[in-house]
Amino acid sequence: MDWLEQQRTRLHGFYRTEYRYSLRITAIAFGALIPLGFAGSLLLPDLADQLFLQFAQQMAELGIMDTTGRVDVLALFGNNVRATVFSIAYGFIPFIYLPALSIGINSLLLGLFAGVYVNNGISLLAYFAGIVPHGIFELPALILALSSGIYLCRKVTDYVRHNEKGVMGPLMKDLLRLFVMHIIPLLMAAAVIEAYVTPQLLKLFL
């Protein structure tokens, strides 16, 4: 228990470092781009429908969702874990801040899919019913991962530019601690809710 409490204290300390700025900027950018995706979907409905169908097909090909719409909780959890790992790992590439691209793609798609519902005469309440229950857990996990990737890229870039010593080791421990103690539990909760709770809520609106 002492060890676990020590890890929690160190993680809370990490949140108080410069990482908090990356987290704040990521959250603001993510939220700001969602309305742009929604507006784009209304302006280009055919493209939005095509992207929505491609996304659904991709979920089926990954084994996450079958033809009846049933979600495989383990496949979903595994896919989300891989996605968040890549979101962080992109930060190892200096200078170009690839995690920022992931921020744009994920937030724009979130808004775009809301527009697809509107374009097809489906209430946004149905969309929120399908997103909010698991999104309460999944979106914070995604934002934590993306902000970690941004922060990692910044530190790697500083290391390349100035050859800073003794930075990367502690940073890797902090990011691993964040991933295991916060991101993984959030993704587990999100997967369970999306597989078992969300379908029941959607039945009330569709």
TrEMBL record:
The keyword Membrane belongs to this UniProt entry's keyword annotation: yes
Any one Pfam family match given in the protein's UniProt record, by short name: SpoIIM
Residues passing through the membrane, by range: 21-44, 83-101, 108-129, 135-154, 175-197
Keyword set, alphabetical order: Membrane, Transmembrane, Transmembrane helix
PANTHER family hit by this protein: SLR1478 PROTEIN
Protein name per the record: Stage II sporulation protein M
